[in-house]
């Protein structure tokens, strides 16, 4: 795949990874799709760390997995260049600039009362439009037939009517079993991905840890009743269940942080708006939420929790990707999981995002305008955020 994978990894190589990834972390605006374009330009065309086919294979793998696709691609490129340590360094360079900015913003915001600000309500309406747009795209891609649409409906109903710490993981497991049997004849891919410098033993350990944490963190949360454990569990599950990019993690995080009283709804949406304005992955929003709860240490812990599933899945699946993508039954299980995740997201979108934001016909019209700007006019998310802030302030002034 890459000649560097067989060479001894040096300090110079690791520093080079850190330098390049940090520069991308400071300049990569525009969301996951734009990030993949920046990566291609820097790593494939300019530095030639990997060829076109290898990059396409890595992107396909990361799109297949839950989690932040662009961050996972960055981790994978770091692994190719510098092994497991290279993957960690690549992640740190790309992610830490926005993490630092968001933690500092959270610490600064704690001294202000933003509860009645019109621009905050505008950001809440933006969230309705952005998440609706993301979920609509996911449903179209992940549920093209009636069976998967029915699975979405079932997951939606269970997620809304049975709200416990175990409901999401139960829905996911049940959907995986259904998909395993219903879509077991789904054709796998015949293409082979090139080898990565990770052993199958290490990969299996990472996968076992991923599923182990997903199952046992909710149990530990119920047993200990500790706020730190509850926060880590909530953020870890959000990072484990998201397909479709950072915008989709918003309802999962809000459903955990706001009802539990960890973060006010106003502070939640203020941080979401700022996250749209900084470079790097949108999953760094978790750093802001952790910092609001427990200062800078909480921000760092939340960052670890949201990105840990991405690391475990990338490290865990790389050695087995050829086998997984050719196994029809395994692919069927993932098909079922994808559909169930859409249902879980729709449930979280309804409550609390939509139910606590759209309080009048004016709110609904404003949300429809913002949604149309995204869906039909294809405007950038930061323009939608700016429109929401200005519109919310204007509407507050008009209604006074």
From TrEMBL:
The keyword Cell membrane applies. The chain crosses the membrane at residues 84-107, 119-139, 151-181, 201-223, 235-253, 296-321, 333-350, 356-374, 381-399. It is found in: Cell membrane. It holds the Pfam family Chromate_transp. GO terms for molecular function: chromate transmembrane transporter activity. It is a multi-pass membrane protein. It comes from the Bacteria. Keywords: Cell membrane, Membrane, Transmembrane, Transmembrane helix. The keyword Kinase does not apply. One of its GO terms (cellular component) is plasma membrane. Its main location: membrane. Belongs to the chromate ion transporter (CHR) (TC 2.A.51) family. This is ChrA protein. The lineage of its organism: Bacteria, Bacillati, Bacillota, Bacilli, Bacillales.
């Amino acid at each position: 795949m890459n000649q560097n994978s067989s060479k001894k990894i040096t300090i110079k190589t690791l520093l080079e990874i850190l330098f390049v990834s940090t520069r991308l972390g400071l300049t990569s605006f525009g969301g996951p799709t734009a990030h993949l374009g920046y990566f291609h330009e820097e790593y494939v065309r300019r530095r030639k760390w990997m060829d076109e086919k290898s990059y396409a294979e890595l992107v396909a793998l990361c799109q297949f997995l839950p989690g932040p696709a662009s961050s996972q691609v960055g981790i994978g490129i770091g692994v190719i260049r510098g092994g497991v340590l290279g993957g960690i360094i690549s992640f740190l360079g790309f992610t830490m600039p926005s993490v630092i900015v968001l933690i500092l913003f959270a610490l600064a915001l704690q001294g202000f009362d933003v509860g009645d600000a019109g621009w905050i309500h505008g950001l809440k309406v933006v969230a309705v439009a952005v998440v609706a747009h993301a979920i609509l795209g996911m449903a179209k891609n992940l549920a093209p037939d009636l069976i998967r649409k029915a699975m979405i409906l079932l997951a939606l109903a269970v997620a809304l009517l049975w709200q416990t710490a175990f409901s999401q993981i139960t829905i996911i497991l049940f959907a995986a079993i259904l998909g395993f049997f219903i879509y077991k004849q789904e054709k796998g891919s015949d293409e082979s991905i090139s080898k990565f410098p990770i052993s199958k033993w290490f990969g299996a350990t990472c996968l076992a840890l991923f599923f182990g944490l997903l199952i046992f963190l909710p149990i530990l949360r119920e047993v200990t009743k500790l706020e730190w454990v509850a926060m880590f569990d909530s953020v870890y599950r959000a990072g484990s269940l998201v397909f479709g990019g950072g915008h989709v993690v918003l309802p999962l995080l809000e459903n955990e942080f706001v009802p539990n009283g960890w973060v006010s709804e106003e502070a939640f949406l203020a941080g979401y708006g700022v996250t749209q304005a900084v470079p790097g992955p949108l999953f760094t929003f978790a750093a802001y939420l952790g910092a609001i709860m427990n200062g800078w240490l909480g921000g760092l812990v939340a960052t670890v929790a949201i990105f840990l599933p991405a690391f475990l899945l990338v490290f865990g699946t790389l050695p087995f990707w050829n086998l997984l993508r050719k196994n029809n039954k395994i692919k069927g299980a993932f098909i079922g999981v994808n559909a169930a995740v859409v249902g879980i997201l729709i449930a979280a979108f309804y409550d609390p995002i939509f139910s606590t934001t759209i309080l009048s016909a004016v709110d609904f019209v404003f949300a429809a305008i913002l949604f149309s700007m995204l869906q039909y006019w294809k405007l950038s998310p930061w323009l939608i955020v700016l429109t929401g802030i200005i519109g919310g302030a204007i509407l507050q002034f008009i209604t006074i």
